[in-house]
Design goal:
Layout lengths: L3 E8 L4 E10 L2 E11 L6 H19 L3 E5 L7 H20 L4 E4 L1 H9 L6 H12 L9 H15 L7 E3 L2 H7 L6
Parallel strand pairs: 1-4, 4-5
Antiparallel strand pairs: 1-2, 2-3, 5-6
Helix pairs in contact: 1-2, 3-5, 4-5
Length: 183
């Protein structure tokens, strides 16, 4: 395992995409940046997806992450919301795959569990624990940025264990692991 790596974490969304980047040096982690892409000003869904793809590519170009950790869509009652969220996740993943960055996907429950020890923790509890772990002063107004950061920190905590519930090292790996999605 590399002793130094940069992990980009993304919380996909069609209203706000949260992201966070951490630098791992040995068994230490350091916050590089966290933020959010606000998409509510765009009414066109296709334009929102384009903005997610472009912002993810910008983050990759600026920070050159070694790996991308992303929150998997959770299964809710609203099928349309789930579809939009899946598309948002897909374009963020596509940007990473386009740049040959390995993708690691985690369920919201797995992320919360790895950060707080409780898979049912609130967004506020996760944010407060991240604040302690990474020693930053101010919490963002929205929790989307800390949700993206949480995906990166979850990936950091996986260490040499089986890294994620799903991972893809490129387009070929994605296609091999998901033949049903290519029909």
């Amino acid at each position: 395992m590399k002793t130094e790596r940069i992990i980009l974490g993304i919380d996909p969304g069609t209203t706000i995409m949260g992201y966070g980047l951490i630098l791992q040096k040995g068994n230490q982690m350091q916050l590089l940046v966290m933020g959010e892409l606000k998409l509510s000003k765009y009414s066109n869904q296709a334009l929102k997806l384009k903005k997610i793809f472009e912002r993810t590519l910008e983050l990759i170009a600026e920070y050159n992450p070694d790996e991308l950790a992303i929150e998997a869509p959770f299964f809710g009652k609203n099928v349309q919301s789930m579809l939009k969220l899946g598309r948002a996740q897909g374009v963020a993943m596509a940007a990473g795959l386009y740049k040959d960055i390995p993708i690691f996907e985690y369920s919201p429950r797995k992320i919360k569990q790895s950060i707080t020890g409780n898979g049912s923790a609130s967004k506020e509890q996760v944010a407060a624990m991240l604040q302690r772990l990474l020693n930053f002063n101010e919490l963002p107004k929205n929790m989307d940025a800390t949700d993206g950061l949480a995906a990166a920190v979850c990936h950091f905590f996986q260490g040499n264990k089986p890294v994620s519930e799903k991972s893809y090292s490129g387009w070929a790996a994605f296609a091999n692991q998901n033949p049903d999605r290519l029909k």
